[in-house]
Amino acid sequence: MVRTKPQRVTQKCKKNIRPAALALLCLQTDNLNMIRNSSEPGYLAGQFLAAMPTMGDPRFDKSVIYICAHSEEGAMGIVVNQPLEELSFPDILEQMGIEPTPTCDSITVHCGGPVEAARGFVLHSSDYQMDGTLVVDDTVALSATTEILKAIAYGTGPKQSLMALGYAGWGAGQLDEEIKSNAWLNIPSDAALLWATEDDAKWDTALKNLGISPAMLVGEAGHA
Hints:
CATH class: Alpha Beta
Number of helices: 6
CATH topology: VC0467-like
Largest sheet: 10 strands, mixed
Number of domains: 1
Low-confidence stretches: 1-31
CATH superfamily: VC0467-like
Structural class: alpha+beta
Number of strands: 10
């Protein structure tokens, strides 16, 4: 079961996950509704974080994170712009005994964060929901079951989806402190940024959405 209290990020995201280990992917009966969200002002579920060049953590260099859950207990999100070149969606399906279809070849697997890098998540449009799905907002949800993988493979899944291994997690108050220390920029919810922007353009696009020039920001970091 997915951790109900997000933990501090402590291990580097593993981009070389051996196929034999894929059978251990925890995409079975995780009840993501155990993750708590808060509707109070100041919490960021359904929004993005863009890493500042000055944050000093190479694991999140130019990362864009979609926040799936945020409350006084902590936060949990998925990095949405770090593709895993060594691993394909058909690889995952085959290791889980699911027959890939030709449409699966175009689905990119992402490194969702350094916490529990062998745990799989599917961030997707909320037109698809099932038992255990975490509904983030009116348009986006998160699932972690084999059923959604089958649905995507067979063309009966959500209209939009993003597959990721691992997640980014913060303990109580940790994310708030990191934002105050200018490690992250908060980006409002944007469907085009999540679903219609190429991975290598998401960080630049996120900054431009705030009226910030990426070149200027990187230049200032270089002279800090």
